[in-house]
Amino acid sequence: MNHKRLTYQTACLAAITTLAVPAYAVPPTATATDTQRSAVADTGAPLTVDGAIAYALTHNPDLRGSVADAAGAAADTSAALAQQKLRVSANLYGTAGNMSNIVMSAPDVAPQSFVMVPSKGFVDQNITAAIPLTTGGRREALVRSARNTASAAASGRDAMAHHLAADVASAYIDAVLAADLQAVAQSRVDAETEQVRIVAERVANGKLAEVDNLREQAELADARQAFISAQTRAQLALVTLKTAMGADQTTLYTLSDTLDTLSKRWPAPVGTMGQAIAAGIGARFEITSAQRTLDAAKEQVNAAKALFKPQVVGFGMLDINSPVERNVSATTGYTVGVAASLPLADGGERRANTAAAQEKAARADADAGSTRNRIAGEIAEAWLRLSPASGQVTAAEAGFAASQKAYDLSVMRYDAGKAIAAERLAALSALTRARGSLREAIAEQIKARLALVRATGAELGGVGGH
Question: What pLDDT is stored for residue 206 in this prediction?
Answer without folding.
Answer: 83
